[in-house]
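ok so for the tutorial part 2 we go from a plain amino acid sequence to predicted structure tokens. step 1 is just haveing the sequence, like this:
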Amino acid sequence: MKYLALCLLMLLAVPALAVQPDEILDDPVLEERARELSKGLRCLVCRNESIDESNAELARDLRLLVRERLVAGDTDAQAMAFIVDRYGEYVLLKPQLNGSNLVLWIAGPLMFLAALGVGIVYVRGRADTAGPEGLSDDEQARLTALLKED
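step 2 — the prediction. this is what the tokens look like for a chain of 150 residues:
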């Protein structure tokens, strides 16, 4: 009985999709394509949530627009291009790797490598100024004498 209750509670934790019944297309193939496209589009109100998951009115408008483009005969790429042209690349949950976005994708790893290089140079510089290795003969003799006194 405990396990059944636990399974039912786990089912409640699954996020509900926001697609309304009146949005669903009659053609299951087109509907599946629309769902896949919707998963890659950002809700402009909710930030990092796809329009497929968002209950915002603007997300609903975007879902309807995707379905409208697919019914009109657009390919997936054409439908996405239409939406990106209309709303900008910000609408994509995973931005494209081209143009100015490429600079943003590369900047993080380059900054990390630059910081790592500066850190290595700093540590090596500190090691070089630490002084000569070991004790001189006079220092060693003095240390030996001090240790024999105790």
